[in-house]
Amino acid sequence: MSKKQYHPLLQSFGVLLVLDADSRCIQAASTNLTHLIGVERPENGQLSLACVLGKRLSQRVRRELRGHQRLPSPLTFMRSKHSNVRFQLHAYRVDEQVVVEIEPLKALGKRRLLGTVNERLMHLAEATHQEELLDYLVNAIQQLTGHDRVTVCHFDSDWHGLMVAEAPGKELPSLLGQRFPASDFPAPLRQSYENYPMRLVEDVNAPPETLAPPCPTANLSGSFLRAPAPERQRYLKRLGARGALSLAMQGDSGLWGLVFCHSATPHSVEPPVRDAVRTLVQMATQRMLLLRARQEARYLQRVQDSLVLSAGARSEPQNPQQLLHEQAATWMKLFRAHGVVLWLNGGAYQAGVTPTPEAISQFVLRLERAHVHSGPWCTRELAKDPLTCSLAMPEQCGALAVPLLMNSTQRAWLLFFRPEQVETLYWAMQPATEQQPTAIAVPSVAWHEEVMGKSEAWQWVERLAAVDLGEDLTLAISAYEISSLNMHLERERKALAEANQRLEQLAHFDPLTKVWNRYRIEEAINAELVAAKRYAAAFALLLFDVDNFKQINDTHGHSVGDDVLVALARLVESSLRGCDHLGRWGGEEFIVLATHSDINAALGLAERLRSLVAELHIEGLKQTVTVSIGVAVWQPGDSCKTIISRADDAMYRAKHGGRNRVEMALEPEVPI
C-alpha cells in the first residue's frame, strides 16, 4: 500500500507557485491559478515561469534570486496590456525549491496611505506611557484595516495571554481585560510567530486551494498563503471571527505579545496595508520597549538614590541596625514589601511585618544549604515552596532573599516579605469538554477565578535592584566594621601608648617625687662623662640629703616625711636650668647633674639650693628642713663611680661639719 501523500492547503486570495532551483519550471501551482491570474494550464507539457509572468519579469526574478534566499523587495506587474489588475509577487528559496506568492493589488491611493502611516508613526513616537501607546496602536490599525475588533495580547511568565488594549467594534464582543490560557498558545505556535511574524486569514470558512499537481516535497511552513490548521480554524470560530490578521510583537527576550485583528465577516487586507500595519507594530513595540527601559531605569535610579553608602555614610559609617531603621520604610515602598530583615552575624534586624526570629533563623539556615550561588532567591508562594512550606510564616506570602557576601566564608542576607494578594482573573473561555465545545464568553459573565495564596510577582527589575542594593549594603556594613575595627585599634594604640608611658615612668622616674630615679640619673651621668671626655666639657654633681630625716619620720610619721621629699624635689627641680637634671639617689638623697658647670658655678648653685631649702615650709612640720650638699666637679679620669664617690664624701663631711652646709669634693689622687 502506498503512503498517503501530503497535500498542503492554501488560501484562495493568492496564487502559489513551486519552482525548481533555477526558477524556470513550475513544478506545482495552486488550483486557483487560472481563476486569479487567467493562466491556463497546458494539457500536456510543463508550465514555465515565463508563461505566467512574461519573459522579462521571469528573467528579473531569476537574476535577483541568484545567490540570495529571497527577493529584496516585492515586485509588481500586470498580467497583460488589456487588464488593469496589478499583482504583487514575493519569491524565496526553501531547500532545493523556489516558492513564489502572487496576490492581486487594488488601488489604495499610495500617497494618501503613506501620509497616514507617517502621521500614525509620529503619534506613536510621542506616546509617553504604554497604555497610551497601545491604545493608539489598536485604533490606528483598526482605521487602516477596517477590522471589527483589534486587540493586543500580552504574555505573562506562564504564557497566559492578557488582553491589555482593544479597539472594539459592534459586531464582536470585547475581550479587554480577559485572559487566554497558555494552552491556546502552544510552543510550536509561538515559535512560528517568531519566525513568521504576520498571518492573514481572509475567510476561515472558505474552501482551501491545493497544489496541482501534488508536490509532497514542497515546504510551505513559511508561506503567507497557507491555510490555518483545523485547530486554529476551530479556535477562530470560537472567537466569532471569520477574517483575522495577527502580528507578533517581539520583545528583548522573545515574544512579548500578539496583535489580533478580527472581523465577523470575510475580510481582506491589501499587501500595502499589511506592510503599513507591520511597520506600526514594529514601531510601537520598539517604543514600548524604550518606555519600559526608561521606566526601569527610573526605578533603578530611585533604588540608587536610596542606597546607604553615601558620602556621609563613608565619612561616618552607621551600624547595621541604624541603617535598617533609617532606610526600611523607603526600601519597603520601593520593593512593594511589608517587611524587611537584615540577617547579620547570626542575628536579625527587622522592620515592618516580618516572621518571628526563630522562623527567620530557620529560613536563613535553609537558604545557606540550598541556595549556594550569589543571585537572589524568590518565591510568591511561601506556603508551597519546598524550601519554606514547613516554616511558620502566616502573615507572609512572598519572599525575596539577597545574599550579601561579607567574606569568603560568611554571608549575610537581605530579606523582603510580601503579603498575600488575592487576584481575580477573568478568562475569555471556559475549559472545553468533549461534549460541550466552548465559545467566547460575554464579558459580564466571563469565567473568572480567584487566585489565593500568592503574593505579587517579583519583577526582573526588582530582583536586579535588590542585588544592587545588597552590594551597596555589603559595602556599607564592611565600612562600618572597618571603622569599628579602626576605632578599636585606635583605643588599643592609645592604651598601649599609655602603658608604655607608665612603663617609662616606672623605669625612669621615682614614683614618689616624680623626678628621675637612680637608674635614669646614672644614664645621664654616663652620657655626660662621654661628652666630657670627647669635648672636655666640664660638669658637676651635687649630692645632698635631708638633715635629720629619720627624726622627722619617727616624730611626725612617714607621710610627713614623704611630703618633705616631694616638696623638696619640686622646689629644687623648679630652680634648675633646663640643661640641669635632678634625680633621687635613694631614700632622702638626691643628685643634681649640672652640665657645663665649673667649680665656681657648681658651688654657687649648691649654696642657692641650700638657702632655698632652708626656707621651705611643710604643713604639719614646725622644724626647718635643711640639706647637706657635697659638690664634685668632673676631672679627667673620672668615672661615674668615682665622681659620685667624691661627691658622697663631700656630703658626709658637710654633715659631720654641722649640717646645712656645702662641701667641695677633694681632688682625686693622681697615681705615682
TrEMBL record:
Q: Which GO terms describe its biological process?
A: detection of visible light; regulation of DNA-templated transcription
GO MF, one term, reads: photoreceptor activity
Q: Which residues form a coiled coil?
A: 482-509
What the entry lists under InterPro entries is as follows: Diguanylate_Cyclase, GAF, GAF-like_dom_sf, GGDEF_dom, Nucleotide_cyclase, PAS-like_dom_sf, PAS_2, Phyto_chromo_attachment
Is the keyword Coiled coil in the record?
yes
Return the PROSITE patterns for the record: GGDEF, PHYTOCHROME_2
NCBIfam families referenced in this protein's UniProt entry, alphabetically = GGDEF (TIGR00254)
Protein name stated in the entry: diguanylate cyclase
What organism is the protein native to? Vreelandella maris
Taxonomy of origin reads: Bacteria, Pseudomonadati, Pseudomonadota, Gammaproteobacteria, Oceanospirillales
